[in-house]
Amino acid sequence: MVRGELRDQRFPLPAGVTDVTFDGARLVNVDFTGTRFRFFVAFGSAFDGCDFSGSAFEQLVMGGACAAAQGKERDGATWPQTVFRDCVFRRTRFPALTAFGNVRFERCTFDRSRLRLQTNTGEAEFVDCVFIGRVREMNFWGLPHDHDRAALGRDRNAFTGNDFTAAELDGVSFRHIDLRAQRFPGLPGYALLDRIAERVSAVLPLVDGWPDDEHRQEARFALEFLADSAYAWNDDQALVSPARMGRRLPPALREELFAAFRHSSSDTSRG
Fold first, then answer.
1. What SUPFAM superfamilies does the database record attribute to this sequence (predicted)?
2. What is the pLDDT of residues 191-208, one digit of tens each?
3. C-beta separation of 80 from 104 below 8 A
């Protein structure tokens, strides 16, 4: 159990200890590089300028809630936020389905970290962070879950100024987030587009002209899902790639459809 403050030092993990809980702690410029944790949980703590490069976690709870703020026993209990500021996660091994909880990342760098299958992110905030390398099957939420808002003390998650220009996004979902407030230019094969429903209608005649019925059905399904999700989640905007035209389409058809989709209306990406 870690409480109080640690500053300007290597994290003092005792020999043989792999389970650590941070409870109301503050850590400034603490070096966690290469440390392996079986269990790591933080409650209402702050990490400033800490380096987690090469660290590995088997179970990770980044912004844990006390028992009174969990499940059905809320009764006005608050859920303190854990904050990571100016921290580095370089080649950090995040376990799949990390429990992000009520956590806020400010100016953090995720450099080729193992961010994959991360869907427990409904209360996480990201501000001015940098993502480098592959990010797979991860959700980012602008709105926390309804049943958590009272305990969190907010009805929106901050998500702005994040830089994805050096990231490879695979199955990443942005929900109720202002995409124009992030940095996407430079991503090869991606376009930040508006008026998704209008674009879908514009390219359907192209799809209908394809000779293979299986290809037509795959493209129609993908386009309808894209239009529905963009309308429901992001004010009819979306970050679009050829893969979103239909993963089972031949590459040539995906590229053809993506080019037509992209040029059917105005492109809102910066630059």
1. Pentapeptide repeat-like
2. 899 999 999 999 999 999
3. no
d(CA 63, CA 66): 10
Structure tokens at 162: 């994040």
Tokens 């109720």 locate to 176
**What does the pLDDT look like over 145-157, one tens digit per residue?**
998 899 999 999 9
Q: How many CB atoms lie within 10 A of CB 14?
A: 7
